[in-house]
Amino acid sequence: MTSEAARAPWQVAEVSAYLQSFFTREFMSARDRFAMERPKLDAEAARRGVGRTPTEAFLVQERAAAAWVAFPALVEEIKRLVGAGKVPPTEAAKAFAFEVVGGLKAQIHGDEPARAAARATADLRLFFDEQALPAATTGSADPYAEKGALDVLLPLLARDTFDRDLPEAVGAATARHPCALLFLDIDHFKRVNDDEGHQTGDKVLVEVASRFRAVVGGKGRCYRYGGEELTAIVENYTSAEAIVLAERVRASIADEPIVAKTRTVSVGAAVAPEHAGTAEDLVGAADRAMYAAKKASRNAVSLPQGPHG
Length: 309
Description:
Blueprint: H1 3-7, H2 12-35, H3 38-47, H4 55-83, H5 91-106, H6 111-137, H7 159-172, E1 179-186, H8 189-196, H9 198-216, E2 221-226, E3 229-235, H10 239-254, E4 265-272, H11 279-296, E5 301-302
Parallel strand pairs: 4-5
Antiparallel strand pairs: 1-3, 1-4, 2-3
Helix pairs in contact: 2-4, 4-6, 5-6, 6-10, 8-9, 9-10
């Protein structure tokens, strides 16, 4: 436990014990449910003539499935405790939450539990950052207030501002202080213009841009890259955190109708220096990730496959 967390005016030890107990219940319950599926899985394997799943392989699958249930449940419980006033929305509490997740991850071996824990940590960072946002941004310069910086149609920064900002952000990025780029494209936008008219297309663009900017908030800066393609530069975000933010953007647009219809977006995310070392290469990596999301299903998010790739 960090000394900062220990000094916080709330019951750290009590909350820690509760969360560990909560996670254990969720994990064991999910594992038991998965174990009950084994006869069905073995019967399906026998039908396909591939034999029974080896016990060790089955246990690996069981742990992975349980981790992907238990870690998201833990995140939601921490959020509930913050909302109930039992955990403060502070940096100390964020550090405490990270320690809880890290401690639980250390108890479960395997790549998938580690990925589930990383996603939980990323989700918690976004949550706590959003809680602290009003205080953190008071008095700070508003990038959207700069004269001539906005796009002519959308409440986003213009392309020439993006071309100026991205090389600076990528140039300053390091492994400890990465720079994420989100690349968003509205699905089937040409169909919107062709079938519903360009005025409707403009309304859809403006609303998508507004929701995009609202979700990114003070964590980064949003731009119109061109046409229906939008971007956001988010510094000090890892790939795990960037993909969680991308998913929030996607959900914010798909979950509520825009101009009386459901609209969706595909979002790619890439991070410097993990996926690229230059601004041009980072745009390419995020763009390829976005097209991978479109190819997969649309209304999806994606990261590049592998470093610098």
